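Exam prep: given the inputs below (a chain plus adenosine-5'-diphosphate), describe the expected output before reading on.
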Amino acid sequence: MDSDLLKILIVDDDEVDRQAVRRALDKTGIQTEIYEAATYASATDILKTQLFDCIFADYRLPDRDGLALVQSVRKEGILTPLIVLTGQGDEQIAVDLMKAGASDYLIKSKISPDRISRMLRNALRIYNAERQAALANQRLQKSYDLLLEQNQALERQRQQIYQQNLQLIHASQLKSRFLATLSHELRTPLTAILGFSQMLMRSSKGTLNEKQTEMVQRIFTNGKNLLHMLSEVLDFSRIEAHNLDLKPEIFNLQHLVTATVDEVRSLALFKEITLSAEIDLQNAIVFNDPERLRQALVNLLSNAIKFTETGKVWVEVRETQSETLCISVRDTGTGIAPEHIDCIFDAFRQVDQSDTRKYSGTGLGLAITKTLVQMMGGNITVISQLGQGSTFQIEIPRSIKDDRANSNKDDRANSNPARAFSKLAGHHTAIK
Ligand code: ADP
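Solution:
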């Protein structure tokens, strides 16, 4: 502070008193630039245009008193330290002055360099501390305002996202409903086309020539492919609408796997691929939805055949534990690159998304298969090497949860297929 020049205003109508303050200030060693005013009016005038580091003001001014000056200065928002010079015995006045915002008061008869220096330093210290605090407060207020603004902007964005989400959900529901209706409506005429082409094939001998028979056969095969795609779209829309239920029953898994492999054998024969099944089960009896398990197996097998040009496709079935079954579909086909492995179970995702892709399909088979396996309480994994082949592995419990039985409060042993299965299979563990 001593190295800084302090700008001081002395307000006093008495020239001698002003000199006394001036002299005391000079003796403090503090560098000052001193301005003087003789009245309340001239002091308030100068304060309108200039800023000071400290004001010394006599309490008794000719036009107004020092209290009025303190009040006026503080009312104008001027926070400069203001020390009022009072007479002896003016203690009550001093209290009023301090209440009005004076920084301190000094009895005129006690003016000394030492006192004035101490008082000035004190007042300035307090003033600086207050200014720092005010600045910090201002900064805080600014950050608070900014935060408030950002919060409001975030809230607006949240609302927007919420509304967009609602719209998306609505659009997705519409899309699912549209897909369901469309595939349902298309299935009816397609079933008729398949029926008629089958009739034509049966009665073709003699009535249709070789070319015509081949054409009818193509109608039938393409129609069946189309029906399969439509069923996938329908299943997918049912899954999205949580409208797909499993209908578990007791059956022989070995029989189901063998029959399913035979079902797709013609596809493998057509591509001259070896197709086989290795079933190694201590107990082939399971409790599951045979139609949905067959569907999952058909999906994996037809993919394996579709993406294999030479070599073989084979199914392995075994028990990993007595209550867990593992079905693997292996092929020596194209394989899947590591960067594509994570997305092949997503709906509508195909490794080759180009319009000129070699292999047909909806891109829904694996998404549906994964959902079905999860609904069965199992999981599906894939190991693949580009150019070497792939292994899709399903792990499922021998006995799946029967939601229909759970919803039936009248849970008698014989009316519950899950329990009946438990008895039949000789298991004493609770049905999951
Ligand atoms: P789609 O077969 O109708 O295209 P899927 O959901 O069944 O749809 O399969 C998604 C993608 O995963 C396929 O397009 C293919 O790129 C890849 N894929 C699935 N199975 C195999 C397989 N056995 N070998 C190589 N790629 C496969």
